[in-house]
Structures are given as C-alpha cells and as structure tokens.
Amino acid sequence: MSKPGFVLDVDERTAPTLLFEGENVRVQRLPPGSRVIYPPASLPGIQDVDAAIRHALLHPHGIEPLPELLQPGMRLTIVFDDVSLPLPSMCRPDIRGRVIEHVLELAARRGVEDIELIVANALHRRMTPSELRHVVGERVFRAYFPERLRNHDAEDHDNLVHLGLTGAHEDVEINRRAAESDLLVYVNVNLIALNGGPKSVSVGLASYRSLRHHHNTHTLRHSRSFNDPPNSALHRSFHRMHDVIGGQVKIFSVETTVNGDSFPTAMTFLNKHEWQWNAVDRAGFLGVRHGNRILPPTLRRRLLNSLKAPYGVTGVNAGTPTAVHPHTLKNVHRQQVTRIDGQADVGVFGVPYVGPYNVNSIMNPVLAMCMALGYLFNFYLNKPIVRRGGVAIFFHPLPKVFHPVHHPSYIDFFEEVLSATTDPEAMETAYEEKFASDPWYIHQYRTGYAFHGVHPFYMWYWGAHAMQHLGDVIFVGADPATASRMGFRAAPDLAQALEMAADTVGSSPSITCLHTPPITMADVR
Amino acid sequence: MPRTYRVGDLNGTRVLLTGADERLELALLERLSTAHPGCHVSVAEPGPTLAGPLDVIIHCAPALEPPFCPDTAFARHVLPLPELYHRLPAQPGPPHLLFVSLAAYSGTERGTVPESRWEHDADWRAELALARAAREEAERSSHRPVPARRRLRAARRAHRTAGPRIVAREAESLRRAWVHRRLREQGESRARALGMSDTAALAAALAERAAEELWGEHRLTILRPSLIGPALRRPYPGWSEGRAMTYPPEVASVSGPGAVVDIVPADLVADAVLAAAATAPKPGRPHYFHFGAGTAVPPWRGQERDRPHRSPGPRGVYVPSHVGYDDREMTALREAAAPSGLYDFDVRSIDWRTYPDAVRQARAARRLGEPVARKDALSVRPGPLTRADGASAVFDLDGTVLASDLVESYVWTRLALLPRRAWPAELMSLARDLPGYLMAERRGRSDFVHAFLRRYAGTGEAVLREVVLKTVGDALLHRVRPRAVRRIREHRAAGHRTILVTGTPEPLVAPLRPLFDDVAASRLHTREGVMTGALAAPPPVGEARALWLNRYATDHGLDLARAYGYADSYSDRAFLESVGRPCAVDPDARLLRHAVRHRWPVARWGAHTAGRWTALAAAVPPAGDRTPPPAGRPAPPTSKDTQ
Prior knowledge:
The complex is a heterodimer of chains A (525) and B (643). Chain A is of the alpha/beta class and 525 residues long.
C-alpha cells in the first residue's frame, strides 16, 4: 500500500519547495501558512507487463476477447496516441509498442493480413520517423514504415469520411481508413484524466470540421475542469461524437496507465520530498540549476529532451472505450489525486519545461500559458484550487523563442493576434478561420512537422476557463513585455508577486502550491 | 535730392506676375487680391506670347540656392528678361516693368550705396557667351582619358557589386560633379575679377543691366530688397510659404561683431513693390529703390572679438558701420504713398521684439500640423497592401526570405549526404577555397555563384531532392524568416502574383515553392541524373536579375511600376530600381545608404529566426536514421509524397 497524497502546512522550519521554472528548477521558500499539495507516492509498476497485456486482451470489458474479433481477410487498423503522451517520454520499450506487438502477434496467428497503423495526432504535428521508432519499437517500425505506418492527415479530404451529426448538430468526421475498418484497436497512454475513453477516436482521428465543435471558448469555459469528465462540457461532446462513431465502427480500446516515476534515477532529487534530500541530492539540484544557466539554450534543450521517464505501468485494461475507461480513471486517480479542504486566495505553480505540444521542441510563451492556465490550473476535481477572483502565480521565464518548424503559426499568432486582442471569444470570431484555412500552414502541417495553423487558438481556449475565473495572473521571472502582450503581469520574485497580488487578494492571502512533478490533481472540497 | 513721386491707383490696371513660386510673388498675389480688388492680376503662362494688353509686369529675380554654375545662374537670372521682352503682347507701348532685383545687400561694398544704376563694366551678352563657352570647354576636358579612368576606378570600388551598368552611371555622375565644381570655381574667379563678390551677385548685376538695356527707352523700375522674411501682419504674422533665402540670426555672429542680418517682412516688400508699380516712371528715366530694414534692425551681436568681417559673406548680412544702402528714394515713395492708406511698408513700424516671436510661433504651429516624426525618421516602413490587378511581388531568397545563404545551404547538403568521418575533409576543402570565393564575390555576384555552384559537381539530382525533402528542408525551414512569410502571404491575400528570384539551386528551393506563383532559381546542368557543376542558364543574380524581371514582366503582362521588390544586398540595386515599389530588407551598409537617400522603405525581418547552429544541427540526420542513399538512384516514393 503506497503512501497517499497529503497537504503540507508550511511553517518557518519547512524546507524550501522545489518548483520547475521552465527549463530550470528552483527551490522557493513559501510564506508560513501556505499549503503544498503533494501527490501520492509513486505506485509500484506491474512486474510482468506482458502477462498483464495478455490478460487484458483476453478479458476485455464490454466486448469479446480480441482473438475472437480477428478474422482472416478483415481490415484491421491499429491507432495509438501520438508523441504528446506521456510526459516526459517513456524509456524504451514504450508501453504502446509492447501492446501493439501483442496485438500484431494475435492478428498474425489469426491470419489477418490487411493491417495498418495510424498515429492519432489530429491537428498536432506529424511524428518523425525516429519518434515513431521510439514508440512502436524497432521491429514494428521496420516491418510497417512507411507504407503501413503513418500519421493521420486531418487535411487530406479524400481520406476523411463524414459519419454524421450528433444530437447537438456537431459534425463527426474521421480518418477514412479507420472508419472503414472492420476493427479499430486503439492503444493509449492515459496520463491524465482528460485523455482516453471517448476522446481517443473522436478527437485523435478527427478533422478541423469536427474539432471546432468542442475546441472552442464556450465549451472550454463550461469544462470545470476538463480533467473531471462528469463536470466537463468537453467530455459531454466527446461522448456525443463517440455515440455516432461507435454505431458505425467497432472499437477495441487498450488503455494503459503509468505511475509517478517521471525522472531517471540519476535525478533522484526530483522524485524525493525536499526534506528527505541528502548531500547527493542537494549536489544534483545545484548541478542542474547552475549547469542549466551555463549551457547554451540549444544544448540545454537537447539534454532535457533526451530525458526519458522510467515509468512503471500501473494498469492495462481493454474493452469498449466507455466500458474500460472507468477502470483506467480509477488508476489515474489512485496515482494523482490528493484531497484538500478549501480553496485558496493565491495559487502557486511551477511550470515544467515540457508539455504535450513541445516534445522535442521549444516551449514558447503561448505554450507556457497553455501549460499554466490550461493544464496546471485544471488539475482539480470539484472546485479550482484558487477561489473565484483569486490570483495565480506561475514560475516561468516566458522567453520569446519559437520553434520555426514545429510552431510557425504560433509566431504569427503571437505577433498578429495577441497584439490585437487577448480575449478568446474575440479572437475566435475574428482570426480563427483565417489561420485554420491558410494554405501555407496546411502545407506545413501536411508535409512538414508543423502544428496545424489553428492550434495556437486551441492553446488559448485551454486557458479560457482560468481567465474567466481568476482575478489576476502573475508570471515570476518573466519578460514583462511578453507577459503584458498576453495580458498577464510579470514579477521578478515571489515576494514582489505577492505584493502585486495584494491589489486583488489583500496583503495576507491564503496560499496553496501544487507540487508538480509528478502530476498532481487536487480534489478540492 | 530725392524725387517727388505720385502714387497712382492700381484700380483698373492690368498687372502680370511672371511666376508664383517666390515668397514675394505669393505675397503680391495676396496683397493684390485683398487690398486692390479692382486690379486685373494674371500670372504668366508658358507660350510664345503673353496674354495682353498689360500695364505693369512685375518680375522677381529667383532666389538661387548656392552653389551655382555661372551658366545656370545666368540662365535663371538674366535670360528671363530678354525672353520676356520677346514675348510682349502687341500693344501700343510696352508695359511698365518692375524688376525686383537681388543685386544689393551683399555686404561687400563700402560706403553708402546709392539708389541708382549699378556701376560695373560687365556686358551681359558677353558674360552669357563666356559662361556657355566655359561649360563646353569643361564638358570637353571632363572626357579626357586619364581622369575618366580614375573616376571609373573610384566608381567601381564603391559600386562594383551593383553591376557594370550602375558603375557606369555612378562614374558619369562623378564626371558631372567634376564639371560642376570646375564651372563654379571659374564663375567665382570671373565674378571677383569684375569686382562682384560671387556668381550670384554678378548674375544679379547682369540682370539689372539687361533690364536697363531692353527697357531703357520705356518705363522701368528696379527695386532691390534685402532678405525677404516671413510676413509681419498679412495674411498672418509669421506666414512664410514660397521660396526665399533666409538665415537664422546666428549667421551674423559668424560674420563678425556688429553684423546684422537684414530681413524685411514679405508683406511690407509686397506693398513697397505695389506702390512702386503704381508710380509710373517717365520713359527713359528709370526709378531705383532700396528696401531694407537698414538701421532699424537691431544688430545681433555675435562674439565681441575684434575679428575682421569675412567677405564674401552670405547675402543680406553686413556690418552697418561699413556699408549702408541709401533709401531716400524709398522714403520719398513711402511718404507719397501714405495718404492713400493702401500701402503699408514702414519698416519703422516693425516691433523687433514681437516679430521674431511671431515667426517662431508660426513655425511651431506649422510643425504641429505635420505628422509626428517617428522614432527612426530616417527610414520609411513598408506600407499596407491594397488589391491591385497586375501587381506583383518579387522576392530575393538569401538574406531576405531566408536568413541563410548559398554557402550555408551547401554545408547542410554536405553534412546530410556525407558520413561523419568525411566531414573534416569537406570542411577543410571549403575553408581552402574560401579566399577564391571571396575574390569572385568582389568581381561580381554572378561570378561567385558560378564558382561556388561548381562544388555540386558529382551530386545526384534525385539524391539532392530527397535529402531536401528530409533534413535539409527542415534546416531551411528553421532559417526562414516568419515576418517574410507573413508578408508573402499578405501579398497572396491581396491578389498579387508572388515571384521568387534567387541564385540558389532549384532543388534547394522546393520547401518554399507553395508560397510563390513562380520561382526562378539557378538551374544546374545534369548528365544522366548527376550534376556536372555547370549552370544550364545564367543565374538570375545581380544585374541579370533586373533583365530577367523585365523579360518576365513583358511575357506575363505585368506592370513593373506597380510591382513590389524585396532584396537585401547592394548587388540587387539594379533589380530594386526596376520595380515601382522597392523595399530594402535588412540591407547591407551600402544598400541602406542608397535606400535612405531615395526614401525607399527599409524593413527588418529578423525576429524569431533560428540561428545558424540550430539549423545546422537540424540538417544532420539523427544517428539512427543514417542510411545515405547511393548517388544517382532515384529515391523510392515515401509516404510524405502527398501529390
């Protein structure tokens, strides 16, 4: 039985708290009276993962075992989550690759020959060959790439099929090969409660025409939070779309969950509580902090991107998406949820260097905002960590650096759209269509490794709920010009940030800090 | 003893002004239209004869900007008078000519200068002929081979990269400057030999002589004002439109202690001119007037050093204790004009404390009405685009749309195609050949392109295209300037035709092709799929780019006057000059100078562009993927081929 999550009350003797600050780390002394939410200890991983996979495939929920679904002459499509999960990327072998190998083995035994593998990347960038090799494993890559292992192309209109409208008149349009298959096997890594279930196929293989029905300001504002599916308008839309898809496509979903071992053992200080650090951990921390400052940015990012997480797998479950998902969510909550009583006036968050949209890339200011106001703010059940009208303080330098190949539309979004308006509704009406249909962005998405032209808007909408809920947002250590372009304020350190926050919440606010990594969800009562 | 004047009424008279550019001419128009509505005013139109009949012609000598050559000075000052004489309309008697001359108030005379005919020996016809002959002689000697070669060498040193045609043009402008300098010097020495201070004074004196000769038997008035300054009262205090020579008061301090800058307000001069025009002289007995503020002007005392007055100084600046300009005739005219109440030109009425303030206030008010000067007022920004049929936008690649250049893209292809162990040898060979390329670049952009692209010899064309599809294309996209791409898309959205012209080999441009309607790149000659290093056609760089664009415009019916051009190096000057809307993008020093001088927009598109090393790292395939395809074999179709 591993230790549950707990809330630490900070006093004068408490060790400074470890916080991520973009590509660097820092320890920050919080004012006495603050509370820090720690996640449950990392669950032990399953010892025999192959046995667990076999068991799951033979005992799925709500559908026949996989071997019974495989017939010779059928069309089988295996779809899997893209490089945006898990975070950081998993050490080899990736769990998805292991599951896929088992599925292919079963399929070969049953004589299935027409098999294709598709990455469910929706409007994310295509995966590079080396990233594909990392996820599916060397053997599968060599056997299937490039003719039968490819990325989903949401702008290839000849290979999309419109399945119909939901009850709320939302278009459901997905990949043609997937829709016309006899069986669709979806392999996911359910890192957070947002993923998985009906989201997998209805979003991962969709087109812009479909996605715009739920990736918009209105839906996101009514998703409180999007990590809490019962209270999320986003998930209600996913369910509606899944009902349309499920009626026409047979989906066998294999959902996996991982534990909290996000960092290699060499960086133990990231996996231990601060008061348990020994001399080695302290040295490690200082080494990382100073090494980060000395290294040139390119080298630093290369090092950070090469860090792989030695995740242990905590569960493998299979079945129909709606049947299997509750089991998966139970595992996710077991690993991540900590209960806390009462909201705070001020929330303090450290923004990590990697998010779903800058794997092997650069976290530009828009992505940092999405990470902060989108993901970190929404890691809650029931109520947000910060009270309505409160202040959120994030640690991130907001450097004005953009990856020109992965995020070209973000540069134009930052320069053209944000300088005109920061209101998500206004930009949705005025600019989204133009970016979504721009032929150059579409060309870069289809033939290069760029995120779709509309993607920066989705990043902005991800923070729409937080923007509506909070009274003020302050970035510590950030470039003031960049922060103000996005509509936020910048402070050089936490003390100044709290002084600035005093305008909104008074001079002795209650403070709660969410301690990530590893990923923590607060169940606020 | 001053004469007695009878100032008549201008009602019903027909007055002709020979121009409307000078400040005095504009002031005259203002006075005539407000105070003398009964007078018929006209301004001379071009044509063989003036529209007549006329009673008075008022001719103001043009304010000349120094430095000037004698023949142009005489042509502008003296020649208008005989021309005027020959254009007179047919009428019983020639009209009264009132000539406003710039002959006096130069400060080089001594004593009191009388209001009468200027005494000198110069013959205006002879001087005109002399000046013309001097120009012919100067032109002839400017073509001598030794100095011409020297000028060509200087032009080549400064403008070689822009191409031979521009070098020739610059050498010609150097020759013209030499001719101008020589004529100026000759003019100055000739003027001094005749006892004048400079060419302008000589021209003014000759003009008066010409007027006296042509109108000697008829009615002639010569009025010599000092510097014509902003208006005192009408139309408003400080009004100062029109051409005129004025200096700030600090000029007086340069000239020596006790010097004054003699400025009279334009409205007073205009009234004086009109009063003189209304006083018809007897035929053969011309009137002369001096109009200056004279002793009424408070001296602006400069440094009280005992420095001798430097002559020749600027016109209108003199030391009242050394020279005075007699104005008794003017005073008599004023007293004769006073009763009518229509003419107000009493310099004693000028309040010298409030007049400069009013001038300053008017200048400030004018400045407030002008658009606020932006931070770098030197350069213009490229403006917004409008939909226009037949408009096109032509872009250079290296340095404009891409931050990289020919050498960098070549290094990417080498690193992508060669195994790691071959890199040092390749880079050493590149370093060894670098001086040769620099020399070629000095000779011309086209020479450099020819020399450098020879390095592609032996590379398979299909191999190159494939590697561009993968890593080199990524490196190229790293070095693309997002601001440039935005501008290209703005042109596309405005319906303009977008064209890329570059010396980069054609396979390397492939990732950017969707942005452009047409791409003109270097075509490398291939034999059996392998590049030989030679070019199949002249590369469109330097001057060849301008020629290519002209031919393209003719073939596609484009109007180059409405075309936009974007380039970054001085070698593209010919190309930028051939389009109607050039724009210099992150220009090198020479292009920046040229652009600022010609008020071309200057754009800075460097923001958010990745660095050289990031792109280089992207060009190198990751260690696991290293499977260099054999040269010459076409690549198998990949899943990325979404054609």
